[in-house]
Amino acid sequence: MSALIAEDEISHEVDLVWLEDIGDLDYVRQSLDRLPTRRGKPAYHRDGRMVGYTQLGPQAKPSRSSGTFRRRVFWLLPHDRDSAPDGLYATGAPAEAVDPRTLTPGRKGRKTARSEGGPPSPAMQEMGITLPL
Length: 133
Known about the structure:
mainly beta; elongated
């Protein structure tokens, strides 16, 4: 879960790679996976789809026991709001979900009114941005 990711665990991130446009996504799920490499697209073994991942810098050290690197993977399940706007997460969001606009390398991101499916902020209203409710 994103709440369980500590920023010191992701301090060696140098880039976020998005596999699709995050402009239309209210939230993405994030997890810290053990992967064999610092960079490149990881294999994906969950339901749903991977929408992004992080890349690590050369200073990132592999685990002494497994030789793997801990990297974040961003993903969505078939019942998430982008695919089922009136479904389980019409409002609210999964525990591991964050607004993708709040993510940067080395920062875990956070929930926002948009990611929670709540009413748009005054700034969003002023810009003409609406939420799928």
